[in-house]
């Protein structure tokens, strides 16, 4: 038998850090896609401007 005491507080921190990192990456990616593709509602599309 082992004489080390069981400490549940030091288990799973690697998985938790991985999930937090993935969430941050997903948010940064979504924000960059939003900034690249979002058109303001009052801005006419290019196809509407060409039809004038």
Annotation keywords:
52 residues; mainly alpha
Notes on the protein architecture:
- By secondary structure, the chain is mainly α.
- Helix content is 58%, strand content 0%.
- The chain has helices at residues 13-37, 46-50.
- It is rod-shaped.
Please describe the topology of this protein.
Elements: H1 13-37, H2 46-50
Briefly characterize the structure.
58% of the residues lie in helices and 0% in strands. The protein has 52 residues and is an all-alpha fold.
> Averaging pLDDT over every residue, what do you get?
84
Strand segment tally: 0
Structural class: mainly alpha
Distance between the termini: 84 Å
Can you summarize the main beta sheet?
Answer: none
């Amino acid at each position: 038998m082992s004489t080390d005491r069981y400490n549940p507080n030091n288990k799973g921190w690697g998985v938790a850090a991985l999930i937090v990192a993935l969430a941050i990456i997903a948010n940064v990616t979504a924000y960059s896609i939003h900034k690249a593709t979002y058109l303001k509602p009052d801005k006419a599309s290019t196809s509407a401007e060409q039809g004038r």
